[in-house]
Protein backbone atom coordinates (compact mmCIF):
# COMPACT_ATOMS: atom_id res chain seq x y z
CA UNK A 1 0.00 0.00 0.00
CA UNK A 2 2.81 2.44 0.86
CA UNK A 3 6.54 2.73 0.36
CA UNK A 4 6.94 4.10 3.88
CA UNK A 5 8.04 1.79 6.68
CA UNK A 6 5.53 1.31 9.49
CA UNK A 7 7.87 0.18 12.27
CA UNK A 8 7.43 0.81 16.01
CA UNK A 9 9.91 3.66 15.71
CA UNK A 10 7.97 5.13 12.79
CA UNK A 11 4.72 4.80 14.76
CA UNK A 12 6.21 6.78 17.65
CA UNK A 13 7.41 9.47 15.25
CA UNK A 14 4.00 9.69 13.61
CA UNK A 15 2.33 9.96 17.01
CA UNK A 16 4.60 12.90 17.88
CA UNK A 17 3.85 14.64 14.58
CA UNK A 18 0.08 14.22 15.10
CA UNK A 19 0.38 16.19 18.35
CA UNK A 20 2.03 19.24 16.78
CA UNK A 21 0.02 22.46 16.66
CA UNK A 22 -0.32 22.22 12.87
CA UNK A 23 -1.80 18.73 12.77
CA UNK A 24 -4.03 19.40 15.79
CA UNK A 25 -5.44 22.42 13.95
CA UNK A 26 -5.93 20.33 10.79
CA UNK A 27 -7.74 17.70 12.82
CA UNK A 28 -10.11 20.29 14.29
CA UNK A 29 -10.87 21.64 10.81
CA UNK A 30 -11.55 18.13 9.51
CA UNK A 31 -14.01 17.51 12.33
CA UNK A 32 -15.69 20.87 11.74
CA UNK A 33 -16.24 20.09 8.07
CA UNK A 34 -17.45 16.56 8.75
CA UNK A 35 -20.19 18.05 10.96
CA UNK A 36 -20.91 14.95 13.02
CA UNK A 37 -23.94 14.44 15.26
CA UNK A 38 -24.59 12.30 18.29
CA UNK A 39 -25.38 8.69 17.44
CA UNK A 40 -23.68 8.61 14.02
CA UNK A 41 -21.48 5.78 12.78
CA UNK A 42 -18.13 6.86 11.35
CA UNK A 43 -15.16 5.11 9.73
CA UNK A 44 -11.63 6.55 9.68
CA UNK A 45 -9.58 5.02 6.85
CA UNK A 46 -5.92 5.07 7.88
CA UNK A 47 -6.53 6.17 11.47
CA UNK A 48 -2.83 6.41 12.42
CA UNK A 49 -2.42 6.89 16.19
CA UNK A 50 -6.18 7.40 16.63
CA UNK A 51 -6.44 11.04 17.68
CA UNK A 52 -9.07 11.88 15.07
CA UNK A 53 -11.10 8.83 16.10
CA UNK A 54 -10.97 9.89 19.75
CA UNK A 55 -12.19 13.38 18.91
CA UNK A 56 -15.00 12.02 16.73
CA UNK A 57 -15.93 9.58 19.47
CA UNK A 58 -16.56 12.45 21.87
CA UNK A 59 -19.11 13.85 19.42
CA UNK A 60 -21.02 10.71 18.40
CA UNK A 61 -21.12 9.40 21.98
CA UNK A 62 -22.18 6.04 23.33
CA UNK A 63 -25.11 5.76 20.93
CA UNK A 64 -22.79 6.10 17.94
CA UNK A 65 -19.67 4.28 16.79
CA UNK A 66 -16.24 5.23 15.49
CA UNK A 67 -14.19 2.59 13.68
CA UNK A 68 -10.54 3.18 12.86
CA UNK A 69 -8.56 0.99 10.47
CA UNK A 70 -4.90 1.09 9.53
CA UNK A 71 -2.38 -1.21 7.83
CA UNK A 72 0.12 -0.78 10.68
CA UNK A 73 -0.09 -3.31 13.52
CA UNK A 74 2.02 -0.99 15.68
CA UNK A 75 -0.35 1.93 15.18
CA UNK A 76 -3.43 -0.19 15.89
CA UNK A 77 -1.76 -1.50 19.05
CA UNK A 78 -1.08 2.10 20.05
CA UNK A 79 -4.73 3.02 19.47
CA UNK A 80 -6.02 0.09 21.49
CA UNK A 81 -3.70 0.82 24.42
CA UNK A 82 -5.11 4.33 24.68
CA UNK A 83 -8.75 3.53 23.87
CA UNK A 84 -11.02 5.10 26.48
CA UNK A 85 -14.57 4.36 25.32
CA UNK A 86 -16.48 1.27 24.25
CA UNK A 87 -17.89 2.90 21.10
CA UNK A 88 -14.38 3.24 19.67
CA UNK A 89 -12.93 0.24 17.84
CA UNK A 90 -9.73 -0.31 15.89
CA UNK A 91 -8.59 -3.01 13.48
CA UNK A 92 -5.99 -3.83 10.86
CA UNK A 93 -7.69 -2.93 7.62
CA UNK A 94 -7.29 -2.50 3.88
CA UNK A 95 -8.55 0.73 2.31
CA UNK A 96 -9.45 -1.16 -0.87
CA UNK A 97 -11.51 -3.81 0.93
CA UNK A 98 -13.38 -2.23 3.82
CA UNK A 99 -14.81 -4.72 6.27
CA UNK A 100 -18.11 -2.89 6.68
CA UNK A 101 -21.57 -3.78 5.41
CA UNK A 102 -23.18 -1.95 2.50
CA UNK A 103 -24.85 1.36 3.45
CA UNK A 104 -23.91 0.91 7.12
CA UNK A 105 -22.14 4.21 7.88
CA UNK A 106 -23.13 7.86 8.17
CA UNK A 107 -19.67 9.24 7.43
CA UNK A 108 -16.22 8.17 6.24
CA UNK A 109 -13.07 10.23 6.65
CA UNK A 110 -9.72 9.61 4.98
CA UNK A 111 -6.91 12.05 5.77
CA UNK A 112 -3.50 11.84 4.09
CA UNK A 113 -4.02 8.17 3.17
CA UNK A 114 -5.59 7.79 -0.29
CA UNK A 115 -2.46 9.05 -2.04
CA UNK A 116 -0.55 6.06 -0.63
CA UNK A 117 -2.87 3.47 -2.17
CA UNK A 118 -2.09 2.53 -5.80
CA UNK A 119 -5.73 1.66 -6.57
CA UNK A 120 -7.22 4.90 -5.24
CA UNK A 121 -10.37 4.41 -7.34
CA UNK A 122 -11.07 1.25 -5.36
CA UNK A 123 -10.76 3.23 -2.11
CA UNK A 124 -13.42 5.63 -3.38
CA UNK A 125 -15.76 2.88 -4.60
CA UNK A 126 -15.47 1.08 -1.26
CA UNK A 127 -16.21 4.32 0.57
CA UNK A 128 -19.29 4.80 -1.60
CA UNK A 129 -20.43 1.23 -0.90
CA UNK A 130 -20.31 1.46 2.90
CA UNK A 131 -22.03 4.86 3.14
CA UNK A 132 -25.78 5.03 3.55
CA UNK A 133 -27.71 7.14 1.02
CA UNK A 134 -27.18 10.73 2.12
CA UNK A 135 -23.99 9.79 3.94
CA UNK A 136 -20.91 11.96 3.51
CA UNK A 137 -17.17 11.71 3.21
CA UNK A 138 -14.09 13.88 3.53
CA UNK A 139 -10.79 13.13 1.82
CA UNK A 140 -7.73 15.17 2.73
CA UNK A 141 -4.64 14.99 0.53
CA UNK A 142 -1.40 16.84 -0.27
CA UNK A 143 0.02 17.84 -3.63
CA UNK A 144 3.77 17.58 -3.00
CA UNK A 145 4.48 20.17 -5.68
CA UNK A 146 2.67 22.67 -3.45
CA UNK A 147 5.40 22.64 -0.78
CA UNK A 148 7.41 25.86 -0.46
CA UNK A 149 10.53 25.22 1.64
CA UNK A 150 13.32 27.80 1.69
CA UNK A 151 16.87 26.59 1.20
CA UNK A 152 20.09 28.37 0.33
CA UNK A 153 20.72 25.45 -2.03
CA UNK A 154 17.54 25.23 -4.14
CA UNK A 155 19.03 22.62 -6.48
CA UNK A 156 19.65 20.27 -3.56
CA UNK A 157 16.16 20.95 -2.19
CA UNK A 158 14.64 20.09 -5.57
CA UNK A 159 16.63 16.85 -5.75
CA UNK A 160 15.57 15.74 -2.27
CA UNK A 161 11.91 16.61 -2.79
CA UNK A 162 11.82 14.84 -6.15
CA UNK A 163 13.19 11.72 -4.49
CA UNK A 164 10.62 12.08 -1.69
CA UNK A 165 7.74 12.03 -4.18
CA UNK A 166 8.29 8.30 -4.58
CA UNK A 167 7.15 7.70 -0.98
CA UNK A 168 3.53 7.59 -2.16
CA UNK A 169 1.64 6.27 -5.16
CA UNK A 170 -0.08 9.56 -6.07
CA UNK A 171 2.00 12.60 -5.07
CA UNK A 172 -0.36 14.94 -6.97
CA UNK A 173 -3.71 13.35 -6.09
CA UNK A 174 -5.62 16.60 -5.32
CA UNK A 175 -5.46 17.53 -9.01
CA UNK A 176 -7.66 14.55 -9.88
CA UNK A 177 -9.65 13.83 -6.71
CA UNK A 178 -12.82 15.79 -7.47
CA UNK A 179 -13.18 14.00 -10.82
CA UNK A 180 -12.49 10.63 -9.24
CA UNK A 181 -15.12 11.19 -6.55
CA UNK A 182 -17.76 11.95 -9.18
CA UNK A 183 -16.73 8.90 -11.20
CA UNK A 184 -17.22 6.76 -8.08
CA UNK A 185 -20.85 7.95 -7.87
CA UNK A 186 -20.53 10.72 -5.31
CA UNK A 187 -22.05 14.16 -5.42
CA UNK A 188 -19.10 16.52 -5.15
CA UNK A 189 -19.80 19.07 -2.41
CA UNK A 190 -16.73 21.28 -2.77
CA UNK A 191 -13.11 21.63 -1.71
CA UNK A 192 -11.16 23.93 0.58
CA UNK A 193 -7.54 24.51 1.51
CA UNK A 194 -6.08 24.11 4.97
CA UNK A 195 -2.72 25.95 5.02
CA UNK A 196 0.30 25.02 7.12
CA UNK A 197 2.93 27.74 7.62
CA UNK A 198 6.07 27.34 9.75
CA UNK A 199 8.50 30.20 10.32
CA UNK A 200 10.47 28.18 12.88
CA UNK A 201 11.73 24.62 12.82
CA UNK A 202 10.82 23.49 16.32
CA UNK A 203 9.35 20.41 17.99
CA UNK A 204 5.82 21.80 17.72
CA UNK A 205 6.03 22.35 13.95
CA UNK A 206 4.80 19.90 11.34
CA UNK A 207 7.79 20.54 9.10
CA UNK A 208 10.39 19.37 11.63
CA UNK A 209 8.85 15.89 11.79
CA UNK A 210 8.37 15.90 8.03
CA UNK A 211 12.06 16.70 7.53
CA UNK A 212 13.04 13.68 9.62
CA UNK A 213 10.72 11.44 7.63
CA UNK A 214 12.07 12.72 4.31
CA UNK A 215 15.67 12.30 5.45
CA UNK A 216 15.07 8.69 6.50
CA UNK A 217 13.14 7.74 3.34
CA UNK A 218 15.49 9.41 0.86
CA UNK A 219 18.48 8.02 2.75
CA UNK A 220 17.26 4.46 2.19
CA UNK A 221 16.86 5.12 -1.54
CA UNK A 222 20.45 6.36 -1.86
CA UNK A 223 19.80 8.54 -4.92
CA UNK A 224 20.98 11.57 -2.91
CA UNK A 225 24.45 11.38 -1.38
CA UNK A 226 24.64 10.95 2.39
CA UNK A 227 26.57 14.23 2.70
CA UNK A 228 24.05 16.19 0.67
CA UNK A 229 21.16 14.71 2.62
CA UNK A 230 22.82 15.49 5.95
CA UNK A 231 23.47 19.07 4.87
CA UNK A 232 19.90 19.39 3.59
CA UNK A 233 18.54 18.36 6.97
CA UNK A 234 20.94 20.34 9.16
CA UNK A 235 20.33 23.55 7.21
CA UNK A 236 16.85 23.94 8.70
CA UNK A 237 18.10 24.42 12.25
CA UNK A 238 20.62 27.04 11.10
CA UNK A 239 17.97 28.91 9.14
CA UNK A 240 15.57 28.76 12.07
CA UNK A 241 18.15 30.13 14.50
CA UNK A 242 18.87 32.98 12.06
CA UNK A 243 15.17 33.83 11.70
CA UNK A 244 15.21 32.83 8.04
CA UNK A 245 13.25 29.59 8.12
CA UNK A 246 10.18 29.25 5.86
CA UNK A 247 7.95 26.25 5.19
CA UNK A 248 4.49 26.28 3.69
CA UNK A 249 2.14 23.66 2.28
CA UNK A 250 -1.58 23.14 1.73
CA UNK A 251 -3.90 20.35 2.69
CA UNK A 252 -6.68 19.94 0.14
CA UNK A 253 -9.98 19.01 1.78
CA UNK A 254 -12.57 17.40 -0.52
CA UNK A 255 -16.18 16.91 0.56
CA UNK A 256 -18.64 14.56 -1.12
CA UNK A 257 -21.85 12.74 -0.34
CA UNK A 258 -23.72 9.68 -1.51
CA UNK A 259 -26.93 10.70 -3.30
CA UNK A 260 -30.07 9.89 -1.38
CA UNK A 261 -32.23 7.11 -2.73
CA UNK A 262 -34.93 8.38 -5.09
CA UNK A 263 -38.55 7.91 -4.07
CA UNK A 264 -41.35 7.34 -6.57
What does this 3D model show about the protein?
The chain has 264 residues and is α/β, with parallel strands linked by helices. The protein contains nine helices and eight strands. Strands 1, 2, 3, 4, 5, 6, 7 and 8 form an eight-stranded mixed beta sheet that branches. α6 (154-164) crosses α8 (206-221) and α8 runs antiparallel to α9. The longest helix has 16 residues, at 206-221. The model has no long low-confidence stretch (mean pLDDT 93).
In short:
This protein is α/β, with parallel strands linked by helices.
Cα-to-Cα separation, first versus last residue: 43 Å
Contiguous uncertain segments of 5+ residues: none
Q: Label the CATH architecture.
A: 3-Layer(aba) Sandwich
Q: Would you tell me the structural class of the helices and strands?
A: alpha/beta
- Helical content (DSSP H or I, runs of 4+): 40-55%
Number of strands: 8
Give average pLDDT, whole number: 93
CATH fold topology: Rossmann fold
Distinct helical segment count: 9
CATH superfamily: Vaccinia Virus protein VP39
Give the class-level CATH name: Alpha Beta
Integer tally of domains: 1
Radius of gyration: 19 Å
Instruction: State the order of secondary-structure elements, H for helix, E for strand.
Output: HHEHEHEEHEEHHEHHE
Shape: globular
Strand proportion = 15-25%
Biggest sheet details: 8 strands, mixed
